[in-house]
Write a structure and sequence with these properties.
The protein is α/β, with parallel strands linked by helices and 304 residues long. Helix content is 43%, strand content 15%. A six-stranded parallel β-sheet has the order 5-4-3-6-7-8, sandwiched between helices. It has a four-stranded mixed β-sheet with strand order 2-1-10-9, with helices on both faces. The radius of gyration is 21 Å and the shape is globular. The two termini are 25 Å apart.
Length: 304
């Protein structure tokens, strides 16, 4: 089963790569014995956001989706962890006060039908546009007045980088790696409460000085996340494993197989959802052989 596989893979890996300090700490807390083998390789701004579309091309993309000129944006899977229901309630409060335009939702998932039903019930102005090709995403961000992220937890949060690089202010829950990614460049809300989230959004939408400051800080913060740095750190991790000329067989491998799952995990795997940074990595490539020298496991935060 997956918990046993995950535990064994961590024990076998000579280096474990995570996409944020937050995920690294969570993994180290779950398995203290592997803490010294964890290396953090943060992600970078997606390349399509480094050369934005011309304004006329961006407007054409938005027209193709039937979008208005301004809107509150949500980008992410429509599932329990991304918590789109909280974003829905916050936008509903804002629209009832005349403080926000439509809600545009980029993403799909099991909660979409429920959200659409609630949209009809409350008369919320919303656009569910599903999956958007990456080359079109900058144009969608270009019409947003703010990005609203209400995830229960995030291992990283690529939409945060996309928004900041696009000059879109961010309002988000203070969860997981979100503070690590946005730094001082976003309005973070401590409580998962619709009124509190709506109040934070209203500040950003109505305070022009705050809005300008967030845009400037966001662009500066996004520049800290470069794929060249991701590559450098990843290279260093592989180099640490490859450098030894000879390697004595590691007794950890046999011990991990003999011991089975970590005590933190029950036989059925309950408790494995200690945090999304541990349980919901988007892509996992564990125990990959690096020549004959060792293994490197690469773990990413919950995908967006």
């Amino acid at each position: 089963d997956y918990p046993r596989f995950f535990y064994t893979a961590c024990q076998r890996a000579d280096r474990i790569l995570t996409v944020s300090e937050t995920v690294g700490r969570q993994l180290g807390d779950l398995y203290p014995e592997v803490r010294d083998r964890i290396r953090v390789t943060p992600l970078g701004v997606p390349p399509e956001f480094l050369a934005p579309l011309p304004s006329d091309s961006a407007a054409e993309v938005r027209r193709a989706y039937g979008l208005p000129e301004e809107y509150v944006l949500f980008v992410g899977a429509l599932n329990r962890r991304k918590n789109p229901g909280l974003a829905f309630e916050a936008v509903r409060i804002l629209q009832s006060k005349g403080r926000a335009g439509p809600w545009v939702v980029v993403g799909q998932g099991p909660l979409e039908a429920d959200l659409r039903e609630r949209q009809r019930r409350y008369g919320l102005t919303a656009y569910f546009i599903g999956y958007v090709p990456r080359e079109r995403l900058p144009a969608i961000y270009g019409g947003a007045t703010l990005l609203l992220m209400t995830s229960h937890d995030e291992g990283f949060g690529i939409p945060l980088l996309e928004a900041m690089a696009s000059g879109v202010p961010v309002v988000a829950l203070r969860r997981g790696a979100v503070p690590e990614v946005v730094g001082e460049a976003a309005v973070l809300v401590d409580e998962a409460d619709a009124e509190a989230v709506a109040a934070a959004c209203e500040r950003v939408l109505t305070d022009s000085a705050l809005r300008t400051d967030l845009i400037d800080r966001g662009r500066a913060q996004a520049r800290h996340f470069r794929w060249s740095e991701t590559a450098r750190r990843t290279y260093e991790a592989y180099r640490e494993v490859l450098e030894p000329v000879s390697k004595v067989p590691d007794p950890r491998e046999k011990e991990a197989l003999d011991r089975g799952p970590h005590p933190a995990l029950s036989p059925r795997g309950e408790g494995f959802e200690m945090s999304s940074g541990i349980n919901t990595w988007g892509r996992v490539g564990v125990g990959r052989r690096v020549g004959k020298a060792g293994r490197v496991g690469h773990f990413e935060g919950g995908d967006s």
